[in-house]
Design a protein that fits this description.
Low-confidence stretches: none
Largest sheet: 12 strands, antiparallel, barrel
Strand order of the largest sheet: 2-3-4-5-7-8-9-10-11-12-13-14
Distance between the termini: 82 Å
């Protein structure tokens, strides 16, 4: 009887041990097989209209971006509906890593040189890691080198401005993505009726119309009030066309400048009053 009791005890211990091992192996297998599914193509390019998107270039990718903004369409036939006046920006933007992109550019309007760094902090994902949004930080600098009557005698520092943004985007489904862009702009030198520091909130979105065509829109609402009421909030809508390695943007906006400092804080056109600039972006990734 004693032997039978001992045998039954050993049998129970062995069975419980095997069962525990199976449970542990099941847990390990679940952890090993579950993957992180990152959301892709929230936006197709690094720009929506004038503003940046959460997109960064992959490591060692180089993007060459050419952008034009013409004069106001309502300027009439004398200005050929704005086509006689073009602001051109060239830029080179390079992926230092999969999460960090740096770029430099040159604007013909006010002869502004600019540079930026973007860092992807979080990617929207499901699976093992569930992140509801993609978050990218942006810091840029702009240096105006054209002679400005009011600042002509000032030193170099007076021509420098900085912009910092947190870009927060979510791809809601296969067709629709949205982005919020809390923004802080600091200008070292401003006129008497302007503020050095401006806070703004950007809102943008992209809606796919077909496999290669999408509708883009963005709006920057200035949270800081200034005495100069001539400035307006920047608004833009555009059509995005993807053709292989190229992305074309055909844009209509009330902002003529493409530097963050200028189009967020110093846009003068009334979009709904007809002060609209036609423009385009062409990008090529190498």
């Amino acid at each position: 009887m004693k032997r039978i009791s001992t045998f039954l005890s050993l049998f129970c211990l062995i069975t419980m041990s095997l069962s525990a091992q199976d449970d542990l192996l099941d847990l390990l297998n679940e952890e090993q097989t579950e993957e992180i599914n990152f959301t892709s193509a929230t936006f197709k390019g690094q720009r929506l209209i004038n503003g940046h998107t959460v997109v960064t270039r992959k490591k060692a990718e180089l993007e060459f971006l050419i952008s034009h903004r013409f004069g106001r369409i309502n300027s009439g036939i004398d200005e050929f509906f704005g086509l006689d006046a073009a602001n051109v920006r060239f830029s080179l933007e390079y992926g230092l890593s999969d999460n960090i992109t740096a770029g430099i550019g040159r604007n013909s309007l006010e002869k502004v040189y600019d540079g930026f760094v973007k860092y992807n902090l979080m990617r929207q994902s499901t699976g093992k890691v569930n992140n509801p949004v993609t978050i990218t930080g942006l810091s840029s600098i702009a240096i105006r080198t054209a002679d400005n009557f009011d600042f002509a005698d000032d030193d170099f520092a007076s021509k420098v401005s900085y912009t910092h943004q947190l870009l927060i985007a979510r791809k809601l489904n296969d067709k629709f993505s949205v982005q919020l862009s809390p923004t802080y702009v600091h200008r070292n030198k401003v006129l008497e009726n302007q503020e050095n520091d401006i806070m703004a909130l950007g809102v943008g979105g992209r809606m796919k119309l077909s496999s290669r065509i999408a509708l883009n829109a963005e709006y920057f609402y200035r949270l800081t009030e200034e005495l100069n009421s001539d400035f307006k909030d920047a608004i833009g809508v555009g059509i995005e066309i993807e053709t292989g390695g190229h992305v074309f943007h055909l844009n209509f906006t009330n902002a003529r400048s493409m530097a963050e400092r200028a189009f967020i804080t110093e846009t003068t056109g009334d979009f709904f009053g007809g002060d609209i600039h036609f423009g385009f972006n062409i990008s090529r990734v190498f």
